[in-house]
Fold this protein.
Amino acid sequence: MAQTPFPIAISVQRISEHLRSRLEDAYAPFQINEPRAAVLETISIAGPEGCSQTELAEALGASESNVSTLIERMRRDGLLFRMRSRLDRRCSVLLLSDEGRDKLAQIDALRQQRMADALKGLTIEEQSQLHLLLDRWRRVLALTARESEVVASRAVRSGEAA
């Protein structure tokens, strides 16, 4: 029997809120919040060449002005630094400091533990199925969002949007 979308949405929302709460609790011992953790993680993923402020803002889905303020505070706190790009000396890149790398490693360990605790009621097979379904759903949503952006862009170009 097919389930209506609304109960699924409510379940996903409740699980999301529960997981967010668990992860936010994991940040507290490190005097850090979710946006700062996301910055550390994004810069870490960028690798040894770092990432530009524009790349960071795009990855976080945030405005450059908001990211700029956050970066400056994190730089003052010793979590990251700016330097000239080795690939293009006209540009600067963001890199994690040793303190930022250490803090991210500690946060990651605690996040892994919290997520393992959250999933312990599911078998390995169920966890794998859940991961596959959620990843598939994420890709569908991303595709739908891109299609909506294309339609909106075409409407603006043709003068249909006000």
In short: The chain has two domains: 11-120, 122-162.
